[in-house]
Design goal:
By secondary structure, the protein is mainly α. Helices cover 73% and strands 3% of the residues. The radius of gyration is 20 Å and the shape is globular.
């Protein structure tokens, strides 16, 4: 790791971002090592204790909705009390100390409870963390892209560890409980990051000027947030991609699934800062539209039945690569979009409204997908999500954001 001794606007830099952004990247790195060790095998673990695609969808849908609704609350509260770090520290602590015990669950109901606790932690921290990143950012697209890259590097390491431990014949439970160790490292690093008073933020640091900024959170801004939230409704939860990937390989090669997930995370990690910087130059909207289009193509491919062969190995690997591209083009760019369009004094609230919208809109998405998957077939489930994606892409393309966002008078 090399440090840049120069500074921009008085801030010391590491790998092109300010030191606090880099530190929060380390926190996310260790948290994702912990989380993705679990995520890469969690669908397999749930199926091993009697779960189904519908149960998988229920766990994913309920916990994701809970997380996003809490993000809305925590974003509003962090603005109200003008403090972000307490939410960030509490959130990372709750998550990293609860999720390892998922491995001791005797049934899917226990998994749901512990996963919900983990998501409570994520809900508490995310809006406040994103707000801190936006305050410390020199260029927001680059800052969010770099943070996401470090987060995803943790996912790469986590999924690689899961593969390694599966290869060594560790049980799912042993792998999940081992995740407590990187989680403790994450808690240690977040304690080193200082809070920020938004009245002392230098507006000259915010170099992206593609849209006017507003301090007032009004109906026009809410409309934008709802449109961005609808995108989440049409997204494909990674747990279903992991389960579907089992159809592309023989049962004795099941240990390869974390490697496919690793491939997705490598693409995500490499492209996140690139797509973030690109969005700083050409605008957020084109980058997001391309990411959604790639996801649409991958969902269409997943709708077709396959026979296990060398070709199926290659195809599923390509689909995971496409999913990594989609994530790098939509996730960090959407969050940078919110920072562009919200005034600095209401940025926590803006992130809160965004995540609240995502939580409400996407609450039924995973459950509906899992129900269709179980009741009809994977083909019908992926056709359903493809249709939803196409509708969302059209809405996003035809929406003129410059007319939604009104300049502050």
């Amino acid at each position: 790791m090399s440090k840049d001794n120069n500074s921009t606007n008085g801030q010391k830099m590491v790998l092109g971002v300010s030191v606090p952004v880099f530190m929060m990247g380390l926190v996310s790195f260790f948290t994702d090592v912990s989380s993705e060790m679990i995520t890469s095998i969690l669908p397999l673990f749930i199926f091993s204790i009697g779960g189904t695609a519908l149960i998988l969808g229920l766990i994913s849908g309920v916990t994701t909705a809970l997380s996003n609704i809490l993000k809305g609350f925590s974003g509003w509260m962090s603005d109200k009390i003008n403090k972000r770090k307490p939410f960030v520290v509490a959130g990372y602590t709750i998550s990293n100390l609860s999720k390892p015990f998922i491995g001791l669950s005797p049934s899917w109901e226990f998994v749901l409870g512990l996963k919900a606790t983990d998501r409570v932690g994520k809900g508490l921290r995310t809006s406040a963390r994103d707000t801190l990143i936006s305050y410390y950012a020199i260029e927001k697209g680059k800052a969010f892209g770099m943070h996401r890259a470090m987060d995803t590097l943790g996912a790469v390491v986590g999924s690689l560890l899961a593969f390694f431990f599966l290869f060594l014949a560790w049980t799912y439970s042993q792998i999940i409980f081992f995740s407590i160790f990187p989680g403790i490292c994450a808690i240690g690093f977040i304690l080193l990051v200082k809070d920020v008073d938004p009245t002392k933020v230098d507006d000259s640091m915010n170099k992206y000027s593609g849209e006017p900024k507003i301090d007032k959170i009004d109906k026009h801004f809410i409309k934008l947030i709802i449109i961005l939230g609808v995108i989440e409704f049409a997204s494909l939860d990674i747990v279903f991609l992991l389960i579907r990937s089992a159809d592309f390989i023989p049962i004795e090669a099941i240990f390869l699934i974390p490697l496919f997930y690793l491939l997705c995370n490598i693409v995500y990690m490499v492209l996140s800062p690139i797509m973030g910087s690109l969005s700083d130059k050409v605008g957020r909207k084109p980058v997001i539209v391309m990411g959604l289009s790639v996801l649409l193509i991958s969902c269409i491919l997943l709708a077709f039945p396959v026979e296990v062969s060398i070709g199926s190995y290659i195809l599923i690997a390509i689909i995971f690569i496409m999913h990594g591209y989609y994530l790098s083009s939509v996730d960090p760019i959407s969050r940078a979009y919110i920072a562009d369009l919200a005034g600095k004094n209401k940025r926590g609230r803006a992130y809160g409204y965004y995540y609240l919208s995502v939580g409400i809109i996407s609450m039924a998405e995973s459950i509906i997908f899992g129900l269709i998957y179980d009741t009809f077939s994977f083909t019908m489930a992926f056709i359903y999500v493809s249709i939803m994606l196409l509708i969302c892409i059209i809405i996003f393309i035809i929406t003129d954001f410059s007319k939604i966002i009104q300049k502050k008078s």
